[in-house]
Amino acid sequence: MALLSVSAEFVVAVLAMWLGSVALTRTPRAPSARVFALLTALIATWGAVRVVERLTTDDGVRRVASGAEIAVAPFLLAAFLHFVLAVTVHGRWDRAQWIVLAVAYGAALLITVLSLADRDHPIAVRPPYRTVGGIGAPIPGWAWIGFRAVILALAVWWVWRAWGTARRTGAGREQLTALLIAAACAAVGGVATILLADLGYPEWPGTALIAASLGLAAYAVFAQGLFRNPGAARRSFSYSLAAGVLTVVYVALLLGLERVSRHLLKTDTPLVTALAIVLTVALFDPVRARVGALLDPYVGRRERARRRLMRALGDELLTAQRPRAAIQPALAQLCRALGIRAATVTESAGETVAAYGLSLAVDGIALALPLRVADRVIGTLAVGTKRSHRAYTVAETDLLTNAAAFLAASLHLDEREMHQAAALDALSEERAALQSQERTLADALTVAVLPERALALHVWALGSLRVERNGERIRQWGGAKAGTRQAEAMFAFLFDRAERGVAKDELLDVIWPDVPLEKADLAFHRTLGGLRRTLEPNLTRGSEAAAIIYHNDRYRLDPALIVWSDLFQFRAHVAASAGTDADTAIAALEEARALYRGDYLDDCPFYGDSAYVEERRDMLRGQQSDVLLALGGRYEARGDLPAATACYREALHITGNDCPRADAALTRLGVTV
């Protein structure tokens, strides 16, 4: 029995350390990952100190391990509840959830303080009893057990509620199913461990259930896409040599640590070595990338400089700033990345556009690159010597040449924008007139393009999918022999792909992944026929179908079928916001902001949970973040600070609190995030 208990607790510690390390190193800014890392750190500590407590032969070590267990154990349930909320609740938590979580952490802190204050009289159901507030006997012990059972039951209930919603909407079903089973295993295992420990029975059955729940919880987190492997690092001879030397040093340190730990813990079990190996495997990729960057810093610096330069030169076009304003930060980023002491950008007329560092008259000009647009030279990029006093390499010269091309394009674009500002205002007025005629055009398309069969559709996809035909929402997508959820997923896939079309194998992979091929093929054709008849109510023969076209082994929606969509309108409003006056830009950005109701095709069955939609979803989420940042900047320039603050906070919410520009803006406004 003792061996089973030690084995179960050791497995729990190893699993927790592995999973927590992966979470913390792969996505340190993701809120769910941080909470998961906290939970696994507590579990790993709890499992490790229990193993030490059982295996050590030294009473002093056993007492220290026991104290560590007393300090950690009460917080496990609170952290578990915190993790459940982080994974299942999207958006703001309600007041009841915050209160319950605060009570859980507060009770854990109180129990820890009371238990450490008098370790000879624990809060338990067996003597020696602990008296709390004049209440003796086993009542405080049973009350503490009941409180923990309530917390576990509440966590399971929250997961159950989220799983019920997912079962209806189809969003995140797999990970929530895994999380529901994990929560149930953790609840049963936690209650079993608590009761068995307090009643003096072996605890390994409960600990084994906790180990199983860890694996299931890890799957739930991984299925959400929180953890992504880092990019592969380029290797060279010097990298391999340095890695070999570091490995030898690490092994020597590990052997020394194991020897010291055996002496201090009074046990021959290689506990520290096993945990260190697990930690090494989990951290190997990030450490390898860091070492590679140290051995060849210019590879990473050149790539970072290129990305920063592109962002500074207007990659985020929704900032609505003049291209000339981006040249100074771009020049500064370039000089810092390459270690350049001084640099200037000047126009042909001799005016200095941007400068960095010392005066070139003092430092001297090492390279002078023309800023050329077509056959016309519009300025010069001049750089001084590097801080290392080394000559510029071929790769660095190429990067500076690319930078000169970007700077020239930025100056040229600024010049063109100034000349065309009046024309853009006129175009904005024409666009407003066209929007007023949109409904008329939509009706004309309905009559002229599809007069007798498919009727024109209005599609809302920025958020939950909603499709209307003549003002009536389509609720039944499939026919008598075709599932409506499958047909809706097929329509969403076709709508998302537009002119690129969808192959039959892709549809089978998303909608019928676990169905045998022959049955899946039959279901596909039934669903396709049902969807065609939904889109074309008067269709009599499949060969006459016009709404869904089959050409070159791919299925496509007829472009004339969609006469309006929030996705097209969103892009149009974003485009209209650039290069216009403040009032027109704010109006266009507010229109785009209102259209974005949530993640793209958020609750669409099957397709909304597939990998195919993630790239478009991430891109649109980033565009909405840019819209909010640009709108906040417009409001800030106008002096409307409450409206600007609301935009920046919304940008933080959409990006999962990972938006440095919004953080900087709120700090600039003196607002606490």
Largest sheet: 4 strands, antiparallel
Low-confidence stretches: 223-241, 298-320, 445-454
The shape, in one word, is globular
Provide mean pLDDT, rounded: 76
Task: Please bin the fraction of helical residues.
Answer: 55-70%
Helix and strand content put the structural class at alpha+beta
Task: Identify the strand order in the major beta sheet.
Answer: 2-1-4-3
β-strand amount: 5-15%
Gyration radius (Cα, Å) is 31 Å
Q: What is the terminal-to-terminal distance?
A: 52 Å
Topology, number of strands: 10
Number of helices: 22
Description:
- This protein is an alpha+beta fold and 673 residues long.
- It has 22 helices and ten strands.
- It has helices at 2-26, 31-55, 59-88, 95-117, 139-169, 173-199, 204-223, 237-265, 271-295, 297-315, 327-338, 360-363, 394-436, 438-449, 484-497, 504-511, 517-535, 566-576, 582-595, 614-638, 641-654, 660-668; strands at 342-347, 352-357, 367-373, 376-383, 457-460, 466-469, 472-473, 548-551, 554-557, 562-565.
- The strands form three sheets. It has a four-stranded antiparallel sheet, covered by helices on one side. Strands 7-6-5-10 form a four-stranded mixed sheet. Strands 8-9 form a two-stranded antiparallel sheet.
- Strand 8 and strand 9 (554-557) form a beta hairpin.
- Helix 3 packs parallel to helix 5 and helix 21 packs antiparallel against helix 22.
- The protein is globular.
